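Final report, Chapter 2: Outcomes

The project's central promise was a pipeline that accepts a single protein chain and returns its three-dimensional structure in a standardized token representation, suitable for archiving and comparison. That pipeline is now operational. To close this chapter, we reproduce one record exactly as it appears in the project archive, with the input sequence first and the structure output second.
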Amino acid sequence: MPKTAGQTAPGAIDREISEFVAFCRIEKGLAINSLQAYARDLRRLAAHEAAREGLPGKEGLLRYVDSLYKAGLGSRSIARNLATLRNFYAYLLREGRIQADPTRYLAAPRQWQNIPKFLNRKQIDSLLDAPDPSKSVGLRDRAMLHTLYATGLRVSELCAVQGMDLDSQLGILKTTGKGGKQRIVPIGKTALAAIEDYLRDGRPQLLKGRGSRFLFVTARGGRLTRQAFWALLGAHGKKAGIFHDLTPHVIRHTFATHLLEGGADLRSVQAMLGHADISTTQIYTHVVRARLRKTVDEHHPRA
């Protein structure tokens, strides 16, 4: 008879986690970043339950989620952990290793109450102007910042861009997002000009005759990592007077917010961001509501 959560043999949770991550890699074809996030979240669960036998059931999961709140995790981090738990237990249920799914008792945090942080037009202009164009790394950094703001790419997608992914004539960029899903995003003339300057005067100096399939490279000729981009973004942010909470995702939020402020529809923004579900894109509806309010105030005769 299938087991309920909590009846699995001691130590089996580690095996279940390994098999689940393998399933996600082989059967679902998830990207390495997603696999690492799943493994990290589930290792945290295993560590929390180390003194107890078997998989946690309803009470154990409620106790675990409560520990996440007590640890000071933000609502988005907790929501991600809950998504991991639901996927994990759904897998166990489908495989017949548990009889019932205890995650149905878990309530999601109200993670969308806070408006995503984004930069205003003056801030983004200052950030884009921060890199020194007289240096090869400055040309690279300026091209990367312009590309990020012009396309809304995730930082992992930005660092993985290859030369053949860019079509300057058509003004489009091909990228591979979560789950290995490819999408095409338009890229504007300003960003293309910054990339052209980098390709002409920056990239050859960085490569020094070496070859690389990646568009954005280091002084050693290798691919720029996510961690390195975070560091250079922080440095340019301070130069632009932006000292707090500046991350690549803030630029992604800025891209989406400015698009919607300019009149873009939510479905188009969803496609460009690579969101599988429109509900994820709806965190930006505060912009849509603000624009509707302004439209009514400006055009309704009795507003």
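Archive annotation: The beta strands are 166-167, 172-176, 182-186.
This record, like all others produced under the grant, will remain available to the consortium after the project formally closes.
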